[in-house]
Amino acid sequence: MADTAVRPKATDAARAHETGVDAPKLDIPLVTDKLLGTWADIRRTAREMIKDPAFWRIDGQTHHEHRERVFSQLGLLVQHKSISRAFPAEYGGEDNNGGNLASFEELVLADPSLQIKAGVQWGLFTSAIYQLGTKKHWDKWLRGAVSLEIPGAFAMTETGHGSDVAAIGTTATYDPDTEEFVIHTPFRGAWKDYLGNAAVHGKAATVFAQLITGGVNYGVHCFFVPIRDDNGEFLPGVGGEDDGVKGGLNGIDNGRLHFTQVRVPRENLLNRYGDVAADGSYSSPIASPGRRFFTMLGALVQGRVSLDGAATNASALALKIAVTYGNQRRQFEGAGGVESVLLDYGKHQRRLLPRLATTYAQAFAHDELLQKFDAVFGGANDTEESREDLETLAAALKSLSTWHALDTIQEAREACGGSGFLAENRLVGLRADLDVYVTFEGDNNVLLQLVGKRLLGDYAKQFKGKDSKEIAAFVVGQTAGKVFHGAGLRQFGQAVADLGQVARSVELGLRAKDQHELLTARVQRMVADVAGRLRSASKLGPEAAQALFNENQAELLEAARAHGELLQWEAFTDAVASIEDPGTKQILGWLRDLFGLSLIEKHLSWHLMHGRLSNQRAIAVTRYIDRLCLRLRPHAQDLVDAFGFAPEHVRAPIASGAEQERQEEAAAHYAELAASGAAPAREKKPVKEKKAAKR
Amino acid sequence: MADTAVRPKATDAARAHETGVDAPKLDIPLVTDKLLGTWADIRRTAREMIKDPAFWRIDGQTHHEHRERVFSQLGLLVQHKSISRAFPAEYGGEDNNGGNLASFEELVLADPSLQIKAGVQWGLFTSAIYQLGTKKHWDKWLRGAVSLEIPGAFAMTETGHGSDVAAIGTTATYDPDTEEFVIHTPFRGAWKDYLGNAAVHGKAATVFAQLITGGVNYGVHCFFVPIRDDNGEFLPGVGGEDDGVKGGLNGIDNGRLHFTQVRVPRENLLNRYGDVAADGSYSSPIASPGRRFFTMLGALVQGRVSLDGAATNASALALKIAVTYGNQRRQFEGAGGVESVLLDYGKHQRRLLPRLATTYAQAFAHDELLQKFDAVFGGANDTEESREDLETLAAALKSLSTWHALDTIQEAREACGGSGFLAENRLVGLRADLDVYVTFEGDNNVLLQLVGKRLLGDYAKQFKGKDSKEIAAFVVGQTAGKVFHGAGLRQFGQAVADLGQVARSVELGLRAKDQHELLTARVQRMVADVAGRLRSASKLGPEAAQALFNENQAELLEAARAHGELLQWEAFTDAVASIEDPGTKQILGWLRDLFGLSLIEKHLSWHLMHGRLSNQRAIAVTRYIDRLCLRLRPHAQDLVDAFGFAPEHVRAPIASGAEQERQEEAAAHYAELAASGAAPAREKKPVKEKKAAKR
Question: What is the interface pTM, i.e. ipTM, of the complex?
Fold first, then answer.
C-alpha cells in the first residue's frame, strides 16, 4: 500500500494558473454525493468495510489459493451483514432491494472475484430460492443460503445452451408413484457449465430443467437439488468437472455438473410460477407458457442491474488511476525545456476525457435504473409493464457499460504504458476480470437484440388499427416523443428536465437541445427504417424471413445501442440540472456536452447521410470536442477524485503520488547538478548541422 | 489435446449447397503458401518444431513455475538451432535475417512468453552486442549469448523514461585513470525497468546510458555490463527488484536494475557508432548526435518488425478458433425448426469476416516488410534512405497489427461466449499476453507520431524552393503519387499491380481503383491539412507552437494510421493480382474488397465531409459490405484453414470438432426420442393466446 497522498500537490495551483481566478471550481463532495446516488450511505458503508486488506485480491496466487481466499471472504461478508439486505427481515434481511445491489456493486473495488462469487451465492442461488420459491422453501433453505451454510450453484447455463435458456436439455420428469422429480442430463451438451460454486464449494444447486409431467413438457422450471455431502463428495447420480483456469475471476470455482436420474422430492420444485400436484397435474398462475418463462427469468434481473453498476465502478477506478498518473508522469521535452505532463498532450486528453464523460453518464443512468429496480422489487411500482421496462432498460445499460468498462480499462492501461501492464497497478487485473461481464448474465449482443425487438414492438403498436395511408403520414411526421412509449427512463418526448437552464455560449447548433434532438432522431429513424424493411417478412417463407431479419440484424442492434446512449445522455442531463452550485453545474455541463458530442461524433456518418447534420456542423462537432477537452483538462483530477475512492480502494502505486515524488527527485537532481557546475556539457553539433538548424 | 478432426465434416457440402456447383473454390494449399510468404519453408520448420508439447504453455502455473518452464524452452530452441539464423556463420548463424524473424514469429503459437523471452535474449540482448558492437565484442560474448550461456537483459527503458529514450538518466562516465566506464543510476526514476531476464535469469545486461567523457555528454550509448555471478547473486553495485505478476507474459521474469558506481572496462562500450579512446577522447563515424542516436536505435528495429508478424499470427489463430466454432455451434431455433449455426447470423459474420480480411491484409503487408528488412540488414539494399523507410514502415504496421490483434482476439473470445473465457480455449491467454505488444518496442501512439512526422517531412520536401503561389497551385492540384515519396511499400502513384485485372461486377464506384483513390486521397488530404495548419508554428513562441501541435496531434496520428491502412490494402491487392487460380483470385478479391470497404466505412464521415463520397455511394458501402459478408460466408472455413495451423497449434477444444460432436449427439437424442413416441408433448397454449396467435 502506498501511504503518500493520492492527490498530486500541484493540482490546485495548476488549475488556478490554467483557468484564471474566476474559473469555475468543482465542488468535489457535492459531486461525490451525486455519483454515489440514492443509496450513498450504504455504498459508503461497503467502501469502509473493504478498506480491510482481508478483502483485497492478492496477485500471483494460484487459482486454487484464490478460490479459497474468496470463499473465506464470503464468510466475512456474512459477518458484516453485507449481503442479506434484499431478503425479508424474518430471514435476516432488511427488505431493501436497491440498497442491497448498491452495496454489492462496491465489492468490485476489492476483487471482482469476490463480487461475482457473492453474486452467485446470494444474487443467483439464494435469489432463485427466494424469487422462484415459496414460503416452505424459504423456511427450509433461505437462512442456510444467506448464512453460507449452504453454498450453492445456479445451474441454468449448459454447455450447449447459454443465451437460449428455453432450449436447455436437462429434464425433470415427475414420477407420481414416488412423488419425486427425476433430474436427468440426456447428452453431453446438456451438462450444466460455467457455474460458480460448482467445481468445489457448492453443496446444492438451483437446477433449471424442462418440467415434464403426464407426458407434457411445461417448459423450464427451477429445482433445488443437493449435490455434495458434508465431505465435499458428489451425491449419487451427480457428477461434474472443473472448468479450470479462466481469463479472469479465478477466485471463483466455475465448473460443470451432470445428473443421472437424480431423484428429488416433489417439494423441491421452486413453485411460485408453476406447480405439480401429488397426482402429477400441473398448475400455474400464468397461463401463457411464454409469459411464464419470461416472468421466471425476469425475477432474476438483478444480476444485470448490478453488473451495470459494478462495470461503472470499475471504469471509474481505471480512470482515477490513469488520470492521476497522467497528471504526474512527464515525457518528452515541451515548451520551456521542461518535460510535458502526459495529460497536457491533446491526444492523451482525447483518450481519457470522453471516457470519463461516459462513465459519469453511466453512473447517473445507473442510479435511475437502481431506483426503478427498487420500485419493482420493493413493490412500490410492480406491474407487468414496469417489469418489462426494467428488463429492457437493464439489458440496454448492462450492454453499454460492460463494453465501456473493457474499452476504458484498456485505454487506461495503455495510457499508463509498461507500468499499466504490471499487476500491482490493477488495470490488467480489472480488465481480465471484467472481460466476461460482456457475455454473462446475457450476452451483450443478445441483450441488445432484446432491446431492439422491444423498440420494434413499441413502434408497431403505434400503427395498430391504422391503415397504410395513416401509417405513411405518421412516419413522415414523426418527431421526438411520438414514436415510443416508456422502454426507458422516461417517456420519449417528455421534456428532459430544464434543458434551457444549462445553456451556455456553445457552438451554434450543438447545444443540449440539439444534442437531444440528434440522439433521439437517430433512434427513431433507425427503428422506423428497420421496421419498414421487416414489414414484408410476414409475407415471406421462414427461410426468406430469416434472411431478411439477418440483413437487418446489425442495424437493429445499433438502434438498440443508440437507444441506451440516449437514455444515458438524458440521465446525465437531469443530474446536471439538479445541481445548484454554479461552478459545478458549468463543469458538469461541459462534461455532459463532451459525452453528447462524442456520441454524435461516433455516429457522424449516420447524421451526415441522413441529412441531420450539415458538413459545417459536422466539422464543428470535432472542433468543439477538442475545445471541451481543453476546458475540462484542468478539472480532470477533481472529476476523478469525485468518485470518492480512498487509497485503500485505488491501491495502484502509480496513482499513489510515487510518480510525482520520482519526478521531483529527478528534477532536483538535475537542478543541483547544474548549480554545482559539474553538469556535463552538451555535445557540440557539427558545423554543417548548426547551419541547417539556423536556416 | 483434442484428437478429432479440426475441420467440420459438413463444410464442403454446405459450401456446395450455398453457392451452387459453379461457385468459386479456394485453393487452400495455394493460399497457405501465399500467407506463409517468402520464408514459408522456415516457418514450416518452426511450426513442426513447436508441435512438441514441451513448447506449449501450461495454464494455471504460478509465474515462478512459468518462468522456469520458458527458460528451459529457450534451451530447446538452442538445441533446435532455431534462433541463431541472423548471426554470421562463424558465430553459429546463417546470415539469414528475414528467415530468422519468420521463424521467431511462429513461436507465438506455442506460448507468447516463449516468443518474447526469446526476443529478449536473441532479438535484443544478443542483437545489441552484434549490431552495436564490433568484432572484439562478438568474439568475446556472441557465442555465449547465442548458446544461452550468458542470459542477458536489454536495459534501455527506465521507470521514468520509456518512449523518450534520449532522456534516460543512467550515466556512463569515463575515468581515464583506470580506463573504465562508471555506470551509475542517479535517482529512482532512472532505474532500468520492465526488463525481461532482469528479475531472475540474466547474468549480464546491455545497458543504455548517457556517455560522458571529458565533461561532455555524447548522448545515449550501449554498454555490456555483467550483473550476476554464477550463483545468481547480484554483483557489487548492482541491485534490482522483481516486477512481479503482469497482465500476461508471465513466463518472462521482468524486473528492475540499478547501478551504484559500477565500473566496467573501456572495451565494454559497444563501439560501432561511437568510441572513447584510452585518453578519453570521443569519436564517431556519425558526426550528428541526432542521426547517431537514431541510427543506433534503428539497428534494433527488428523487434518492431517481428511483432507485426507475431501479432498477425495471433489474430489468425484467434479467427481460426472462432470461425471453426461459429461454423459448428448452434443457438436459437431458425427457419425449419433447426437451430442456426452462429456464423449464419448477419451480425456474427459482421463481427468476424472483416477482421479476417484485415488479418489477410496484414499477412501480405508483413511479408513485404520482412523482405525490406532482409534487404537492409542483409546488405542488398542498405542505404540511409532504405533504413528510414524500413523504420517508418515497421512503426506503421506494428501499431496497426498489434491493436488489431487485441481487437480481434477479444471479438473472437466474445463470439465464443462463456467457452471463450476458459483458458483451455486459448483466446483469453492470447489476449492477455498480446496486450503489452501495443505499448512495448515503442508505444503505438508514439510510433504513429513518428510516422506522421515523416509524412509531414516528406510533404514539406515538395515545397522546397517553391514560392507560395506555386505551393497553392500544387496543393490544389495534388493527386495520387505527387505528394509523397517512398515512406512505405512503394512510391505513391506507382500503379498498384494489375488493378484492372481483378475487376468484377461490383457496386459502381466501389471497385478496387475507387478504393485505392479514396484511401490515398484521405492520407494526402489529412497530411496536407495538418501541414497547412502547422505552417504558422515557426512564427509562434514555443508555448503557442506546442499548443498548436497539440490541437493537431490526434489528426496527425489518424493520418499516420490511414497511411498504414493504405499500405496494407496495396499489399493485399498485389497478392491477389499474383494469383492465377480463378476461384481463389475471385474469393480473395472479395476479401480484399471487404478490407478496403471496411476501411472506408470506418472513416465514412471523413469521406462524406470532404466531398469524396456522395450520400448515395456512402450508403452503398455498407450495403456492399453486407453482400460481401454473405458471399464470403461459405468460404470462411477455407479462409481460416488456409492459415495452415495444425491441431497442435490450435489446441482449443471448442475448435477441435468436439462441438460438432455434441450437436450431433443432441440432435440424434431428440430424433430418437421422437421416433420412439416417448417424447413429451408441448404444453397446450391457453385458448385466449391461441386466438391471438391466429389473428
Answer: 0.92
A626/B609 Cβ within 8 A:
no
Best of B154, B406, B414, B526 to disrupt the A interface by mutation (most A CBs within 10 Å)? B414
Amino acid identity, position B54? A
d(CA A259, CA A170): 8
A217, A335, A339 ranked by CB distance to B681: nearest: A217
Which one, of B670, B332, B339, lies nearest residue A217 by Cα? Answer: B670
Chain B residues touching residue A653 (CB < 8 angstroms)? none
Taking the alpha carbons of A251, A190, B344, B25 in that order, is the dihedral positive or negative?
A: positive
CATH C-level class of B153-290: mainly beta
Find chain B residues with C-beta within 8 A of A161's C-beta.
331
User: Out of A335, A417, A440, whose CB is closest to B443?
Assistant: A417
CA distances for A495 relative to A498, A588, B681, angstroms: 8, 20, 51
Q: Residue B218 is nearest to which of A244, A340, A683, comparing CB atoms?
A: A683
Cell of residue B287, nine digits: 558526426
Q: What residues of A are labeled active site?
A: 441
Is the Cβ pair B62, A60 closer than 8 Å?
yes
One fold for both A1-49+301-679 and A155-289?
Answer: no
DSSP codes, B47-103: HHHTTSGGGS--TT--HHHHHHHHHHHHHHHHHTT-S-TTS-GGGT--S-HHHHHHH
pLDDT along chain B (695 residues), means of 10: 38 48 90 98 98 97 97 98 93 94 98 98 97 97 97 97 92 98 98 98 98 98 98 97 98 98 98 98 96 92 97 98 96 80 94 98 98 96 94 97 98 97 98 97 94 91 68 48 39 39 50 93 93 85 86 93 97 97 97 98 95 90 94 98 98 95 95 95 74 45
Q: Which residues of B are marked as active site?
A: 441
- CA count, 13 A, side-chain hemisphere, B677: 0
Quick check: A563 and A582 in contact, CB under 8 A?
A: no
Asked whether the beta carbons of residue A217 and residue B666 sit closer than 8 angstroms, the reply is: no
Mutate to test the interface with B, among A17, A168, A245 (most CBs of B within 10 A): A245
3-state class of B681 per DSSP? strand
| Grid coordinates given for A109 | 473495488
Distances (CA, A) of A169 to A161, A188, A189, A271, B78: 8, 9, 8, 20, 52
Of A551, A682, A686, the CB nearest to B626: A551
C-alpha grid cell, residue A434: 471484467
CATH architecture assigned to A155-289: Beta Barrel (2.40)
Residues facing residue B341 across a β-bridge: B330
Residues of B in contact with A163 (CB under 8 A): 331-332, 417
Vertex B573 angle, CA B568 and B578, to 5°:
130
Sorted by where each begins, the domain ranges of chain B are 153-290
CA B480 to chain centroid: 27
A chain contacts of residue B172, beta-carbon cutoff 8 Å: none
CA dist., res. A303 & res. A305, Å (int): 5
CA R_g for chain B: 28
DSSP-derived secondary structure for A399-412: HHHHHHHHHHHHHH
Locate A410 and state its grid cell: 484498456
> Cα torsion for A665, A667, A668, A672, to the nearest 10°?
140
**Contact yes or no for B546 and A682 at CB 8 A:** no
Q: Which of A105, A86, A108 is nearest to A95 (CA)?
A: A86
Q: Quote the CATH superfamily of domain A1-49+301-679.
A: Butyryl-CoA Dehydrogenase, subunit A, domain 3 (1.20.140.10)
Q: Are B334 and A557 an interchain contact pair (Cβ–Cβ within 8 Å)?
A: no
State which residue of chain B sits closest to A552, comparing Cα positions. Answer: B346
